[in-house]
Amino acid sequence: MIVDIHTHYLQYATDFKEPFFSDLKRCGILQQSWDYTERDYLLGTAEADRVIVFGLKGKKTGWEGNNSRVADFVNRHGKKYIFFTSIDPNEEDYMAQLERDYKELHCKGVKLGPIYQGIHPLDKKYYRIYEYCQQYGLPIITHMATTFSSGVPLEYARPLYMDKVACDFPKLKIVMAHMGHPWEAECIAAIRHQPNLYADISALYYRPWQFYNTMRLLEEYGAGNKVFFGSDFPATTTADSIKGLLGVNKIIEESNLPKVSDKLIQLILYSNPIKELEIE
Ligand SMILES: [Zn+2]
C-alpha cells in the first residue's frame, strides 16, 4: 500500500492573496502548477492507495485555504482521502476553529506552517495547538523547510525547534515536511533523536543532488524508519514522486559514489503513516 502523506487541495481563484502571486513570479514558478481543478487533483493522486489532504492557511504570506471545502471533498470521495485541517494562529478564533474542525468536521490531524504564518514555532500560540493535539491524539504535519513565500524569517523553518517541541510534548506525533531542507542533516538528527518526531520526503526528488545526499545521510544515520512518502501535490504528483524516489541513484550512475539502498527506498515508499501516527 502506498500512502501519500502530503497533498494540497486549494482553489486558485479564492484561496490565494498577495504576496503569494508576486512570490510565485519572483521565484519563476509557473502559475498553472497551482491553478488546478478537482479532476487534476484526483489524477495527480491516482497512484496512491491512501492520501492525506489539507489546504494551507498562512495569512502573512497570502495562503487562505478553506478547511470546510477540504472536508467536503473528503466526504465526497470516501475512504481513500484523509482530512487534516490547517490552523493559522494569526486568526483570533484559531482554537475555536481547531475544536470545530476536530469535533464537527472530524479532521484526523493538523497542518501547520510557521514559515507561512510568521510565528515562531516555540510561540505560546502554537503551544496551545500542540497541547490540544496531544490531548486528542491528533498528529501534526508542519512545514519545516524553506519556501518561495517571502516576508517571514527563514529561521522559523528550522527542524531544531520541533526537536524542542517533541521534548515538551512527548505524546504528540509530529511530522516535519520536506526533510527540513536546506537543513536535512538537522532534520535527520532530530527524527533519530526523538521517538515522536518524523519527516516526509515530499517535493524533494526534483533537486536530484540534494535528494541523493539526503537519502545517503538517512542511510548512514539509520533513520529511514522515521520517514514517510509524500508528493506535495500540486508541486509534483504521486506518480512522479514514486518515479523520483525509485530513480534516486540516477545522478551517480556513472560514478563510484555509494548508492542509496533498495531497502531504504522500499522502506520509505511503503511507509505507513496511518498506522505509525495512529490515525485510524
Ligand atoms: Zn506542502
Write the layout of secondary structure elements.
Elements: E1 3-8, H1 12-15, H2 20-26, H3 38-44, E2 50-54, E3 57-58, E4 63-64, H4 67-76, E5 81-86, H5 94-103, E6 109-112, H6 114-117, H7 124-136, E7 140-143, H8 159-168, E8 174-177, H9 184-193, E9 197-200, H10 208-221, E10 227-228, H11 238-246, H12 262-269, H13 273-276
Parallel strand pairs: 1-2, 2-5, 5-6, 6-7, 7-8, 8-9, 9-10
Antiparallel strand pairs: 3-4
The structure holds zinc ion.
Residues 6, 8, 177, 232 line the site of zinc ion.
Largest sheet: 8 strands, parallel
The name of the CATH topology is TIM Barrel
**Contiguous uncertain segments of 5+ residues:** none
**Rounded average pLDDT:** 97
Silhouette:
globular
User: Structural class per helix/strand content?
Assistant: alpha/beta
In helices, the fraction of residues equals 25-40%
CATH domain class: Alpha Beta
The fraction of residues assigned to DSSP E strands is 5-15%
- Classified in CATH, the superfamily is Metal-dependent hydrolases
Strand order of the largest sheet: 1-2-5-6-7-8-9-10
Overall tally of domains? 1
* Terminal residue distance: 15 Å
CATH architecture: Alpha-Beta Barrel
Rg from C-alpha positions?
Answer: 17 Å
Brief characterization of the structure:
The protein is an alpha/beta fold. The chain is 39% helix and 14% strand.
